[in-house]
Each structure stands twice: as structure tokens, then as C-alpha cells.
Amino acid sequence: MIRVLSHPVYRRLFSAQVVALLGTGLLTVALSLLAYDLAGAQAGAVLGTVYAIKMVAYVGLSPVTGALAERLPRKKVLIGADLIRAVVALALPFVDAIWQVYVLIFLLQAASATFTPAFQATIPDILPEEEDYTRALSLSRLAYDLENLLSPALAGLLLVVLSYQSLFLGTVAGFLGSALLVWASPLARRALPGEEGGAVARRGFRERLTRGARIYLATPRLRGLLSFNLAAAAAGAFVLVNTVVIVRGGDTAAGAAAQGIDRGETGVAVAMAAFGAGSMLAALALPRLLSKLGDRPVMSAAAGVLAMLTLGYGLRGSFGGQPLPWVALLGLWAALGVAYGAVLTPSGRLLRRSSHPEDRQAVFTAQFALSHACWLVTYPVAGWVGQAAGLGQAALILGLLALAGTFAGLRLWPAGDPEVLRHAHPDLPPDHPHLAAPAGDTASPTAATAGGAQAPGGAAPVHAHAFVIDDEHHAWPTHG
Description:
The protein is mostly helical and 480 residues long. It has 2 domains: 2-188 and 206-412, Growth Hormone, Chain: A; 420-479, no CATH class. The chain has 16 helices and 3 strands. The chain has a 3-stranded antiparallel beta sheet, with no helix packed on it. α1 runs parallel beside α5 (130-146) and α9 runs parallel beside α14. The protein starts with 7 loop residues before the first helix and ends in a 14-residue tail after the last strand.
């Protein structure tokens, strides 16, 4: 896996991701403590609102900013977004009201909604070989897990000698470091739409705004991916929103048994680190596991585990079970982390497989927006239901959502899922360039069917190739 870091450009970009996520991890811990400082036992509801605002920014703004940024040099987009995030994070230590937190988080996440899809779409352009890209995805997952492992551990050490407000300065340093590393990376300039070597046609804003979602939702494997993302969001939201409540304050909702463990501020960091450690373990094992089993079996099994573990916790809490011992809670969080990482890590492989290079940023942006729409549902459930009805009831609802996502993913993503599909083009004449394209072109017929072979009885030309939704292919062959 580490071998992919020998690529100099990827090494710099990976380093940028690591330092930015170290800062983001400090921000996660600091926000939890700030919410508890401002709202006390209602911190879970505040964090649920904060994360819901984050998702609103992601879902509502990422398609718009992605469409606008498509005509800008990607390097400038990445650096600009990092600088905006640094400025906003610098203001967070000075807030003294909950509404100020909400406003600043919206601004920060609006910049992240621009940065993240553009960054993710850059990696497959740098690493065109699938084996290298798979390793890069696992390394990327490891980098994300730093937010849940090394950053909370670092936060715990810093909290021994500093106030939690100082953690926000670490966030600022992370975003500035990321901007510097991106600036130092010699990214090749993309051919923009309308330029020689760019997209075939100069698409209008509306087309750029909706193209990624249309490709995404017309592709069965990506519809399955979205369903598995719902399972990951359901379990992940419960962990991220309610860890601080479970570890520090307990469940104070009327009629609910207290489930707090009262391990203090450092206990929150340790619990989050356990979740991150599990996800990191999954990322280390996945390259070999995916090569043997494939994406669908691994992701569906992991989604099912997330559903069962979340439901189990909810049943225990809802029927008056004793609070989990500290070690058992850490073990549960680690197991949830393993399954969570196994669902999310392969996503980039599916997106890369399902799009042409010129559509890749649009498809990554669609994944970013649609997957975070799942979090927009699950974060409020984790925070508001947990506050109003108890943590057990919140976990039950989220576990049922995860179970529904698992079954939907299995239904929407057919088993087998071949890359090369035989299909007809009733809307194209036999001499259309797509049908006559030379074999070997990734968007052209295979050698056996090149030239648009006429089907028996004079039916529409039929051929086979690696199938993706694009200008010549508007619907999946098995769906009309």
C-alpha cells in the first residue's frame, strides 16, 4: 500500500490531506466540548444541529460550487477553499453564543463542499492504474481515520495543558498546511470545457449542475452505493453525535436510564479514537480483501454489521439494560469503525469505474452531495431523538435505517455487475462514429463487435464495451 507514495505528486497531495484532517479532527473534539460548554446536557441536540447544517451546506452547495469550479483551474480552487476554511476556524474560539457556531460552521463547510470533491476527482487523474488507485483509496481512508484516531489522541494530550479553545488554532494550522502542500504540487492543468482537449461540447451551467447526479442515479452500482452510504451514515451519526453524551453526561431524557460513563474530556477523545482505529484496520485489510471478494460482497456485509450492532445497542438501551462497561463500549465503537471503513473505502473505485475522465469531477460531486443527504437525515435523528426520547430509541431508529439501506443496496446493485455490457443503439444510425470507433477505445465497441454489427432481422446495431452513462448512453441496458 505504501508503495503508491513513491509517486511525488500523490505524496504531496496525500500529505495535504493528512494535515488538513489532523486539523479537522481537533475541530471535531473542540466543537463537542464547546457545545457542552454552551449547552450542557443538551450538547447532543446542539451537535445534531451543527452536523445538520454541515450536511445542508454539503448537499445544497456542492453541486453549485462544483459546476462553477469546473471552469476554474483545480489547483486554485483547492488552495482558495483551504484559505477560507482557515479564516473561519480562526474565528471559532471567540464565539459565545450557539447561533454564532451555526453561522461559522455553515461557512466552513461551504468551503469544504468545494474542496473535497475537487480533491477526490484529482487522484484518479494522477494514478490511472486501478491497482495504484485502490491503494490510494485505502491510504485516503487511513487519512480520514486520523480524524478519529490521532487527532483525538493529540487533543487529549493538549487538553492536559491547554484549554479546548486552543484546539481551534490547530485546525487553522492544518488548513494552512494543506494549502501550502497543494501549492507545492505540480498538478497538470486540465483542459477546460470548450478548449482543445477538453469536453466535446461547452456545456451550460444547468447541464454542469445536474450531469453528475443524472449519471450517478442512472447507474445501478452507484444507486447501491448510495444505499450502503445510508447504512454508514446511520451508524456513524450515532457515534459522532452521542459519544460526548454517553461518555460525559449520560442520557438525561425523562424516563430513560442514565448511560453515561463519566470519563471526562479525554474519555471522549479515547472513544472517538477507538472508532477511528477500527476504520483504520479495515482500510489496511481492504486492498487484499477487495481483490479476492469484490466490492459488492464486502460493502453489503459491512453495511449489515453496522445495522446489527446499532440495533443491538438500541435494544439494550431501550429495555433498561445496564450501561456498557467502558472496555465493552470501546470494543463496540471499534467494531462499528471496522464496518464503517469497509463501506466507505471502496466508493472511489465504483465512481471511477462508472464515469469517463471528463465527467469524473461531476460524478464525485454527486456522490459527495447525495451521500451527505443521508447524513442530513441521520444527524438530526441522532441528536434530537436522542435528546427527546433517549439514546436507546435513537439507536433503534438509526439501526432500522441502516438495515433498510443494506437491503436496498442489495436490491439496487445486481450481483455480478459486469463492466462490459452488450447493448443496442436504436437512436443511432449504423454509421455513427460511436458504433464505428476502433476497438480498444474505452468508450468504443470491443473488437468482436466493432462497427456496430447489425442484429438479426435488421434490428438496431448491437455492440459491447465498458459501459458508462454518457452522451451516447442515457439508460442502463438492463433498465430499458
